[in-house]
Amino acid sequence: MLEPVREAIHRAHKPFASAGLSADDVAAEFAPFVECAARALATSPAGALSGVSWNEARSMAWLFSHRMANHGLAPAVVVAALSSWRDVVTKDQPLAGSTLQRACDELVALVIEGYARGVEERERLRAQRALADAAPVRELEPGFLLAIAAGPMDAEGAQQFAERVSRDVLRRDARVVVLDVGDLEEVTGAVLAELWAIPSAARTLGARTFVGGVRGVVLELASSAGLADEGEVRVPLVSEAIRLAREAIAPPPPEPFWKRWFSARSARKAR
User: Fold this and answer.
1) Tell me: the pLDDT tens digits for 195-210?
2) What gap in Å lies between CA 8 and CA 10, rounded to an integer?
3) Are 249 and 143 in contact (CB under 8 A)?
């Protein structure tokens, strides 16, 4: 049964050869559904498809379409895979035509739902990557990095942003990092947990982190999530974080002449 299905997938895939998955990959992804459906056809009572095997086949159909959408595969290839399976089974079992038609109607609805969900997740991930790439990471002065996490950032976007900031800390040899979390929208504990990889990476690389905007919901989540103290300084205002960071990297003021003279005189008397 798999061979004619594989041939149909190859024919449908040919116009979309530039897609990330090859036709053989698509056929391999579709094979678990074919195997589960074959078991269901062999064990289900006449006139109906039911039981554990059919439920597994339904799940495999949904998962197949979802994964294909995630990979950016054209929907025509997904439909061709399902249609070729129906044609092969109808040819092998002509007496089960009405049963297969009802089953295929059900599968089409599942495949459409799975594909749509996969497209939504793929686009959401793409948007999060774009947001993480667009989020400002600026070197205000040598050794001073400002990273602004803002907007509707989810955990995946926060992870990508944290990785980007950590790379910049290493590349720019930063001594201090100011992380602004005050303008995050719909922030969650998972988002903050990913962002707290920045103080951890900075500490490992020898830089101090000052987190500004830790107030309101962010303060509550930071407390309830039990974020580990990585030596960062948490303050309510970004301006305060910037001030503290500047003080941390500012050279110490020169010692007054009279103090140096007094210290030297005291040392001579001690001898």
Assistant:
1) 999 999 999 999 999 9
2) 5
3) yes
> Are 213 and 183 a contacting pair, CB within 8 Å?
yes
Helical residues (DSSP H) of 18-96, grouped into ranges = 23-43, 52-70, 75-92
Task: Determine the Cα–Cα distance for residues 247 and 259; give it in Å rounded to an integer.
Answer: 23
Q: What is the pLDDT of residues 13-24, one digit of tens each?
A: 777 765 567 888
Chain-centroid distance, C-alpha 14: 31
∠ CA 240-206-227, nearest 5°, is 60
> Residue 268 has which token pair?
């001579």
d(CA 271, CA 267) in angstroms, rounded, equals: 7
Q: What is the pTM of this model?
A: 0.53
**Angstrom distance (rounded) from CA 166 to CA 186:** 24
Side chain identity, residue 159: Q
Is there a contact between 192 and 179 (Cβ–Cβ < 8 Å)?
no
